[in-house]
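Input record (one chain):
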Amino acid sequence: MKTLPVLACLALAACTKEPAKSAPAEAANNYTVNIAAHAPYAAGQEASALITVTAAPGLHVNPEYPVAFKPEGSEAVKFGDERVRLTAGTKTPCADKAEDACRVEFPLPLTPEKAGAAKVAGVLAFSVCSPEKCLIEKVPLTLAIAVE
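The corresponding structure, as predicted from the sequence alone:
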């Protein structure tokens, strides 16, 4: 019966040459990360994007971890360094422990080099903690921006 191997292969998603590209289940349940445009963007003028890290219930964003963005592959957007250290902006306290921040916004300084479509891409390194442990995460981010 030839359909069984095909069905098993489809069910297990093992027929592709590339491994699945998804976050570990633990990571997906412990935080969300978002990057958003903070327009307007003009060629040659410093601007920013806004990165938001939100910890899942029972966790908080680790204030002692050096949050950083490592830019990747963009000629149209320049950053201050090969690894941009981010400073926390707006913090939202946790409902169960007000001294901890469960949501933190990080402005990402950048300078678009030329007018037109551009891409902000890189990896964000951050940490979220529970009372028992801290998780250190690295998450790829991509944002399309329009530069005047």
